[in-house]
Specification:
The protein has 472 residues and is mostly helical. The protein has 22 helices and no strands. It is globular, with a radius of gyration of 22 Å.
């Protein structure tokens, strides 16, 4: 392969008015691209778990209040809508998924390097700036990775696919608190602990840079607006042809994501504080290890959810899991100690599938609006910047146990979407259309992919092609 051909194959720009094979990949053909993108889920799971651990560490090392330490979460999740509705979504719509992956990894690397001098100077404000840059990088990755996983393979299994990939996110959230319990809380010298934080972020920067190079060199299928219009037309979901402002199910999903993510992040952010205040004999090291165990329950819930979705419709599993979050969080407000901690373990187990399932269900039938729509759903992560500070204020004045009433309220509001996709026909029928489709399944799928690879099908049918051109 000559240099010109190499450069052409490495092009980061994809034409949205042409179909690729991505819309009709079989399970076997989708394994490599899904595995590569799944590494990103582990990466931001580790970053998220590390952030929750650092929340408590900075309270100890810098002597700041709970409400101020929540500034880490505000900086991290506040960056998400800037990425998902701004720069990352622009790159996604004008270039493609691979370009957005590389852009997100670049920002993550820059943020991790900026964290280095800020940690050296013991500057909490500076570290928040570094976390804001990292949040922009991870927001960019989520803007592309979540919709990519839902579409890359048979539509029937999209909820299972994204939950399985997100399960590796859960593994990352387990490892981060375990590392934190020994590297941050296990040392008497706070300067040594801060130095360990620095080296963790330097290692992250090196790993992320290598991953960006791997994405540049990898041949993974792009997913275009024409691909999404084709899927919407084939499944008869019937909403992708409407103007974007009339995608009401999408906006409801984004609202649910805002409420759900805010509640999830608030619970994780103050889990260690909750253990300290309701079970004071534990200490910070044990509290961090208990948090790692809770994140283990979270990861386990994702694998259990994937298995259940094989036999039960994903929308029903989603309803049961999100409703259980409400049911089991309520006792944790007043009980505390071992009972309250056990309730939070159960809540994290049931939280597991909610975020990715909202993404998958919310993108059903968006067709040519899929890339723009994914930005709105991921932008709902802004709730992670809003709810934790509110929870922190209540924790400072009423105690961490009573503060759990704040995430409970937001779980209840998020539940409106889980009820809608199960009991409102306009929502339910759209969801079930994708669950029952045969795209990417069986011999007909293999024949269709071969046809596209030979170049005999270069674009969608007349209607879908018109939609894609109209989008541009």
């Amino acid at each position: 392969m000559g240099f010109k051909e190499f450069v052409k194959r490495r092009s980061l720009k994809a034409r949205d008015d042409q179909r690729t094979k991505a819309a009709e990949l079989t399970l076997r053909q989708s394994v490599y691209p899904i595995a590569l993108v799944t590494v990103l889920f582990f990466l931001w799971g580790f970053s998220y778990g590390l952030l929750d651990t650092l929340n408590k560490h900075f309270q100890n090392a810098l002597g700041i209040e709970k409400s101020r330490s929540a500034g880490l979460q505000a900086a991290y999740f506040g960056a998400y809508p800037l990425a998902s509705l701004g720069h990352a979504n622009w790159i996604l719509r004008h270039y493609g998924y691979r370009a957005t992956f590389i852009w997100g990894l670049f920002l993550y690397c820059v943020g991790a390097l900026v964290a280095w001098p800020c940690i050296e100077a013991h500057s909490f404000a500076g570290f928040c700036v570094a976390i804001f840059i990292i949040g922009n990088g991870l927001g960019s990755l989520e803007t592309a990775a979540n919709p990519y996983i839902t579409v890359c393979g048979p539509p029937r299994y999209s909820e299972m696919r994204i939950n399985l990939s997100q399960a590796f996110n859960g593994i990352g959230t387990i490892l981060a608190p375990l590392i934190g319990s020994y590297a941050f809380f296990g040392l008497e010298d706070e300067n040594a602990a801060m130095a360990n934080v620095k080296w963790v972020y330097i290692a992250i920067a090196a790993f992320v840079l290598m991953l960006a190079v791997l994405f540049f060199l990898s041949d993974i299928p792009e997913i275009t607006d024409a691909d999404m219009a084709y899927q919407a037309a084939e499944t008869h979901a019937g909403s992708g042809d409407k103007p974007f402002r009339k995608q009401y199910r999408l906006f409801h999903a984004a609202f649910a994501q805002f409420c759900y993510t805010g509640a999830q992040v608030a619970i994780a952010s103050f889990f260690i504080n909750y253990v300290d205040s309701t079970r004071p004999e534990s200490g910070d090291v044990m509290a961090s290890q208990l948090f790692a165990g809770a994140q283990g329950a979270f990861a386990l819930g994702r694998f259990v959810g994937v298995i259940l979705m094989k036999f039960v419709k994903p929308r029903i599993v989603f309803l049961v899991f999100l409703s259980s979050c409400v049911i089991f969080l309520a006792p944790a407000i007043t009980q505390g100690h071992n009972v309250g901690i056990s309730m939070l373990y159960i809540v994290l187990f049931f939280e597991s599938i909610c975020f990715p399932t909202i993404v998958a269900l919310g993108m059903r039938g968006l067709g040519r609006h899929s890339k723009r729509g994914s930005g709105f759903i991921v932008g709902g992560v802004l709730g992670g910047a809003v709810v934790p500070p509110l929870t922190g204020v209540v924790a400072d004045h009423k105690g961490t146990g009573m503060a759990m009433v704040i995430p409970l309220i937001f779980f209840v509001m998020a539940s409106t979407y889980s009820f809608a996709v199960n009991f409102v026909p306009a929502y339910r029928n759209n969801t079930d259309a994708f669950t029952e489709t045969e795209i990417g399944i069986g011999a007909s799928a293999d024949a269709a992919v071969v046809e596209i690879e030979k170049g005999e099908v270069a674009a969608v049918g007349t209607d879908s092609h018109h939609e894609a051109k109209h989008y541009q």
